[in-house]
Predict the 3D structure of the following.
Amino acid sequence: MDFETIICFEVHAELSTRTKLFCDCPIDYDAPPNHQICPVCTGQPGSLPVLNKRAIEYCIRAGLALNCSINSNARFARKNYFYPDLPKGYQISQYEEPLCENGYLVIQGDDGQPYPVGIKRIHLEEDAGKLVHASKTFESADYSFVDFNRSGIPLIEIVSDHTRNPVRSLQEARTYLEKMRQTLRYIGVSDCIMEKGQFRCDVNISLRPKGARDYGNRAEIKNMSSFKFVLDALEYETRRQAEILESGGKISQETRLFDEAKKATISMRGKEDAPDYRYFPEPDLVELDTDSAFIEAIKREMPELPDQRVERFISAYGITQNEAFVLTKDRQTAEYFENCVPHCKSCRKLSTWIAKDLFRLLNENSLSIEQCNIPPIHFGRLMDLVEEGEITDAIARVVLEEMFKTGKSPEAIINEKDLKPVQEQGIIESLVDQIMEDNPGTVAKIREGNPEPLNFLIGQVMRKTKGRADPKKVREILEQKLPITAT
Amino acid sequence: MELCERSAYELSRLLRKKEISAREITESVLSRIEEKEPLIHAYITVTGDLALEQADRADQLIAQGGNIPPLTGIPIAIKDLLCTRGIKTTCASKILANYIPPYNATVVDRLLQQNAVFVGKTNMDEFAMGSSTENSAAGLTRNPVDPERVPGGSSGGSAAVVAAGEAIAAIGSDTGGSIRQPASFCGIVGMKPTYGRVSRYGLIAYASSLDQVGPLCRSVEDCALLLNAISGHDRRDSTSVDLNCPDFLQSLDQDLDGVRIGLPQEYFVEGMESAVRDKVMEAVSFLEQNGAEIREVSLPHTPYAVGTYYLIATAEASSNLARYDAVKYGIRPRDDFEDIIAMYQQARSEGFGREVQRRIMLGTYVLSAGYYDAYYVKAQKARTLIRDDFRKAFEQVDCLVTPVSPCLPFKLGEKVAEPLQMYLVDIYTVSANLAGVPAMSINCGTVENLPVGLQVIGKPFDEEMLLRVAHGYQRLSGGQR
């Protein structure tokens, strides 16, 4: 039996505001436990929340980037539940009037066409603290520690809509998550570093036999700490549900946990055990004042989105769509590219060199583009030297590597390392003569009418010059000296 | 009259004239505490050493001269639900018996800015839930007027210390009458300001949308003095309103001529003790004779007030009190609990008193899936109607006058077994909290030596009208207490 799948996401992204959502505590992921806390974020009796306006701005910015309508009478609600990492016994979240509703995120569908995945809502809420267990799980631990540094960090929850263009496959799931993360990073609202817990997600998945009208019950999967685990979980869950449906069974609506070691999902609780969060409007905060002027101001300051940048790169710099995709993958790369543009003549050359050679160096050294040592002006100059034939690609690669290490200008490196191109006819000719003398056998073969070893001789000359000669010129001279006689 | 029995206003004047010292006042108060506490038991914590230290500092400041804030050197008691840095703050609950706040409530800071002297933390109904100060893990407080009777609640300790001379004035909190009713029962003055007038930061919450901090004191002048000190916008409380505060003492000078006073007809129906009714009507006539214009008005949704109040207050309380889960606050039970749920259950069953547990359960029910619309949402609608009642009434009158309590101070233990009877004691006070309007209680005489309170209710942020009417009454009637 063939099945169709729908997948919905609840993405949680921690906002990169300077301070927490309801207090002045700074956000610092490297601080020692319980060093970024105050009466408010530890829920001291009598303390009250005061809303961080920047967090509202960021949430609205995300809403606008994801084509949502912005609610002018949004408000906060308390979500009540007991857990040791939740100092007030409730989380300040949003329920009935979230800040953003009814948007979409365009991804590339499996058919290669743009596919606008529906976004149901985006709401703003506070993060909980973090439990550190004395052994692997809460249940088996003799004791656990609570770290409240994370308590009160602003979080947006982005819920995709199962009724409007839901994600239909694992590939689309990956594309959706990547595009979501890229977008949030682009607009500067979240760093989305999964290892730091800044980007987390729960997924809902349900299946139906191809052609059937209704989907089966959905299962919600929690507890996945990386993209890979999300995909592993989805793969497992698709298979599990398909097997049940094929054998005539029914899927029970439940919440399941992903077990990273077993790469399997395990039932956590059924529908009937779903907690009643007893939401009600948060009486300690007043209604949000998000008037149109406020929203317009956020719109005006909205950074360029990934798709817009791709379009602009293609039209402004004459690069291919593929190159544009690669360069805009993250904002920092795109910015680096654009910083180099004024310093060089060929954007196409620049784009290739960044996408291939610079990326290779970054990868080899496990560095990000922000850590790249090369001033854009030097990178641009290097491109011009290549473009104008001043140096060969091979030399340019050597120079680039040195620039990467030292940040020096290409000219300085060329001088220091004696990489100046060998251009004088006389010098090249004498080198060619020497190589011919050193390789009489090869020369003889060529003279006999076999042109193949010519490349070998060119290589020898290039090696002698440490790549500084123009290989075309070397070939020219060699061909003059060794005219190939047709046999 | 001993120093500890005088008003803050008068003592402040004497201090400035250097006729007395803050140390003398404080010593007078402390020796009164020593004398009365064994019987009255109005304090949970007495901070005698701190008080003397603060008094000496106040004396130094006065000696130095310059601009001395009016509460400098005045001994004030604070209800044990306002956070005081380094001083135990228990909410009269076992679950917070060992809680020492790391910060001061804004109100506490503002009193400190005025160089007030802190005598101690007063007893109350646990988490401010109650009307008699009998629901206290620290034991009950007796009414100084008649020790066989309750002082009212929940700010019963604050009212009792003022009435007994165990402090010059006190700070309390009022969620459904918790300042006004004990003020009435102890024959003193108490005010619940407009919601948003005084910061709630550091006030341990019972019902966030109803709670308001206010003064309990000997005279209307003192009430104005304290209000001046504690009112005003606070960045740390989003519900505090950014409005300029007048000098409340100024409103005391105006007479009653032409003040339009409304009598809500729904407040003068069955359920009220007739002696209370007679005293209140006497006061009304007195006001009329002295220039006020009396009009009958209607607050048609009054019958729904108590029900609405108990739905909203308990719903909010069930959430506000969730943090006492033995993880950070409250007493961690024995180590052998089976799982985390058992830990919560044990800690909360042992740590909360019966009335608090009752209200948490009620509130949890009110917010539950399937009941939320029928109870919580409906109560919010009723609250809007009640608020509208007041808005309409205030189109015709400047303030309302009503009884504070339908009954005289009752005997200890009399209503303990009857929670519903106890809830009905709040019948005339809860509406002001639901509507967010200011209301105060002043004494209007006694029945068989038991004080009767008169309630004056005003427009939002018009505490001045309340002070004007209350002070006019007190001055002209010669302070009938």
In short: The first strand of chain A starts at residue 3 and ends at 14. Residues 304-416 of chain A form one domain. Chain A touches chain B through 30 residues (CB under 8 Å).
